[in-house]
Amino acid sequence: MLGCTGQSSTSGNGGGTNGGAPSIATQPTNQTVTAGQTATFRVTATGTAPLSYQWQKNGADITGATSASYTTPVTTLADSGEQFRATVSNVVGSAASSIATLTVNSGSSTSAINVITYHYDNGRTGQNLNETILTPANVNSTRFGKLGAFAVDGKVDAQPLYLSGVSISGQSRNVLYAVTEHGSVYAFDADSVSGNTGTFLWKKSTLLAGETTSDDRGCGQVSPEIGITATPVIDRTRGTNGAIYVVAMSKDGSGNYFQRLHALDLTTGAELFGGPVTIQAAYPGTGANSSGGNVIFDAKQYKERPGLLQIGGTIYTTWSSHCDIRPYTSWVMAYDATTLAQSSVLNLVPNGSDGGIWMSGTAPAADSSGNIFFIIGNGDFGTTLDAGGFPANGNCGNCFVKLSTSGSLKLADYFTPHDTVAASNADEDFGSGGGILLLDVTDVGGTTRHLSVGAGKDALMYVVDRDNMGKFNPTTDQIYQEISGQLGGGVFAMPAYFNGTVYYGAVGDALKAFKVVNAKLSGVPSSQSTQHFAFPGTTPSVSANGTTNGIVWAVENGTTGVLHAYDASNLTSELYNSNQAANSRDQFSDNKFITPMVANGKVYVGTPNSVVVFGLLP
To answer: Are 478 and 597 contained in the same domain?
Structure first.
């Protein structure tokens, strides 16, 4: 099909074996499709050859639709009721077909994709393997581009989420969920974008009476206001209609700051389970902001920067500071998804300072056993180890950690570089980038390895064995694999994984592909983009139909953002970028840490005041 160009999907004369003026032998028939699909109309005719064809929509000629069949672009609900017919001509005369009507039903489109968490899954692989519409053949500036934008009331720093087939007001819809730094949660009809629109299915403010969003706390990282920064998580099984979980920051008229966990109904935005709940915590320790033998969580000193994580019936939150403004430490908190009750608290720098968890706004990962993995920022690390190899004072700043969630939260394993103390003192933290869980891979001896890869400001790629991460050695890095000299700058991003390949976008560097062979990451990239990405580099996403039609998507930061699309098998092949079309057709304003999200033929990118939408052009 060549549907997005409006041209026929077949060629030839569609008849013409009999002499004389054209006569319609087979009329086009009415077509019924689901929003997100294409529709094809066909006609056959007889008459003196050659026969020529011209399709019309609602009485107007369709440019380029000059074959015996016509395939529409990807449909939306707004296309329902459109009428199509063909006129067949030759040197003798012409004949018009009967009219065929297009009906577009709402409901789940062909791939029925649900994007319920950051980077598609708890492994944070960044791959959507259910994309049936976008392919390397149709993602180009002629057939693909900016369709419009959903306008919102603040910065969109979190990755948008997406659900297929949500019943709202008696209709089944594909829904895009977006959150803003103005403290708002939006639900949009994902199939309704056409130009810029502020129309939404519902909108919910997380601010309580008399409150505003937080100021930027003297830190320009999230500015001018702090509301909802982290990517939410969705659970379609909770409550009557499912829930979206959101952490929001606010401030009251007396200058008090609050962090709250909200659970909102997916169909109405109503608060669920007696929420919201105010986030408070204490943990045994004598570190920064301690009192009476406990470190105390002070809401004004933190923001929920990494995305939320759900494992089973528990929601996990991880906390970063505002810049490096002290006092702060390293908090992880767990909440019951049904009651919103706090179920566990862990502090990973309880007897020291710093150790914020931010990972450039990516998210902690989890394996199938319920273990949590993430990388902590610069902070105190206890170089005196206990018999198990853990810091005796409990401080694990600048660590790549594995947490057990069986019972209460517990540090189960970790890795930190041999020069971790010097790195933290120089603000060269490990935790500027996020870690990704690879699929389980088999080494040359046939042993299955459970690996994770991460990188930070030192531009080294660290591959850890999740079953034996390596802990700390003051003279050497006890690690499964370490690769130097291949990233051109520090990492403020998360990689993506697809078809045995890891994709990395470091600061000032090309987007690079590293093959996984015999359970080892290749020491040199197999391909790389010609484009280099300024700070903060780029966090790529991948769309594919199973193992085919792989496309790597990456946003380039700048005053004007640029969306790039690359052939996943060869990054030197750029399929599209949003600067290619004439007259600034596809340009948009950028947010520095945004991650593109692909679902059902569309690419969604957060901006300072909207979610911009790309897809196949009508």
So the answer is: yes
